[in-house]
Amino acid sequence: MAWSQTQIVIVPGDLASTEGNINNVLPFDIAVIPLASERYQQVYDASLFSALPAGGALITGLSFRVDGTYGGSFSSTLPEIQLNLSTTGAGEETLSATFANNIGGNDTMVFARGSLPLSGTGGSSPNAFNVTIMFSQPFIYNPAAGNLLLDVRNFGGGTTTAFDAIQVPGDGISRVITFTGLNVDSPVASMADTSGLVTEFIFQPVPEPAVFALAVLGLATLWLFHRSRRRLAAR
């Protein structure tokens, strides 16, 4: 059955209303360690997205939640962040220590490199998923094509708080990261484990081909109109 409106998918799904068993300050609270920069890849098994319609859906953003024990309410701006998504053949137990080996052919920069305002509310266990990042470029994800890779480059440090996370083998998520001694530009990770941020993905239905074609036609017509006006003005 196709979706007709915005939907959310929380992964792992059994933690929708249950606190994870660990907290995680990476990759958005690295100044506390301290780290000047960091590369962070987290994989989500395709089986965690069984609620998606056949053919997949558009990921337009994601949310994390403040850890119920070690986190607290915060509001800050991280100076330089980039987020990419891709479909990958790498899985929970098979992420490579070489970052490039995990990236799929449809690698997409969903949040362009720049400053990122973040805020979240603590005080409960579990807290609401309100540490939200909306994408500048949506990503079409079809679980039938493989697992989902989140690739975060934190170029400028910054401080937020501890986020809710899970570390259970077989839960469908894991990570590879740079840590002390390596930075965001390193081609290889210095640590790998089965930890991962509990994540809420925001999905929109994939536009029908006819709707998409009309949108493209409309943009092309508008461009031609403005081009014609410029030519007339130049005469």
Which features would summarize this protein structure in a list?
six-stranded antiparallel β-sheet, 39% strand, 2 domains, four-stranded antiparallel β-sheet, single chain, mainly beta, 2 helices, 235 residues
What does this entry look like structurally?
The structure is a single chain. The protein has helices at about 100, 210-235; strands spanning about 5-10, 20-25, 40-45, 55-65, 75-90, 110-120, 130-140, 145-155, 165, 175, 190-195, 195, 200-205. About 40% of the residues are buried. The longest helix is centred in the last third of the chain and has 26 residues, at about 210-235. The protein is mostly beta strands. The model is unreliable at about 210-215 (pLDDT under 50). The radius of gyration is 19 Å and the shape is globular. The chain starts with 6 loop residues before the first strand and ends with a helix. It folds into two domains: about 5-205, no CATH class; about 210-235. It has a six-stranded antiparallel sheet with strand order 6-5-8-3-10-11, with no helix packed on it. The protein has a four-stranded antiparallel sheet with strand order 1-13-4-7, with no helix packed on it. A three-stranded antiparallel sheet has the order 2-9-12, with no helix packed on it.
